[in-house]
Specification:
Helix content is about 80%, strand content about 0%. The chain has about 80 residues and is mostly helical. Helix 1 packs antiparallel against helix 2 (about 40-60) and helix 2 (about 40-60) packs antiparallel against helix 3.
């Protein structure tokens, strides 16, 4: 019983940790966009698309997919 509780608690906290990672990434992207980065029109469209998709995925509880999608936008923006 203790082992089951430990597994459930770990899973719950791991999910929460991912959930909190998405908004932090979105804020980084928004901050970078506010500085008017020098990107091509295609790159800017991709960043905006990935940012929107990442937020939608986050809101639907698909946090790992959200983090992965937001990472694409961050790569274009060269956010570490």
């Amino acid at each position: 019983m203790k082992r089951l509780f430990a597994v459930l608690a770990t899973t719950l906290f791991a999910g929460a940790a991912l959930a909190f990672h998405c908004p932090a990434d979105m804020k980084k992207i928004d901050a970078a966009l506010a500085k008017s980065p020098k990107l091509s029109e295609a790159q800017m469209n991709d960043v905006k698309k990935y940012r929107a998709e990442g937020e939608t995925l986050h809101k639907s509880g698909k946090h790992q997919e959200s983090v992965d999608t937001l990472a694409k936008a961050m790569k274009i923006l060269d956010i570490k």
